[in-house]
Amino acid sequence: MYIVEVPTKTKTGKISHKCILLRESYREDGKVKNRTIANLTNCKANEIEAIRLALKLKLDRWLKVEADGRRLELREEIDKKEEEAKQDGCYVIKSDLPMEIDKEKI
Q1: End-to-end CA distance of the chain
Q2: What residues form DSSP beta bridges with 64?
Q3: Which of 33, 32, 85, 26 is nearest to 59 (CA)?
Q4: What is the dihedral of CA 73, 17, 35, 45, to 10 degrees?
Q5: What stretches in the chain show pLDDT beneath 70?
Q6: Which sign does the torsion angle of CA 61, 62, 63, 64 carry?
Q7: pLDDT tens for residues 42-67?
Q8: Beta partners for 8?
Q9: Tell me, what's the pLDDT at 106?
């Protein structure tokens, strides 16, 4: 998911205002498509920044935003959150050192 600002132009080409949209990308038949989840134009600046921060922190993996008319609802997916918490602190280190090397030499 991401937030995009789409300028709306008049017939003369001047920008009249910007629409702020919450969108997500998905694939359909091998093509990348976008769907608008919510129109954030009428939201307060601090609310939009809070959503941006949540997306930056990748909370959208387990925190879903749903639009219900003019209301936004946040839905927490507990099972996905717990699965991600299991992986927290796990790192994979790739090395070109041979497996037989003595750990004292490193």
Answers
A1: 43
A2: 75
A3: 85
A4: -30
A5: 90, 103, 106
A6: positive
A7: 888 888 888 888 888 777 777 777 77
A8: 17
A9: 64
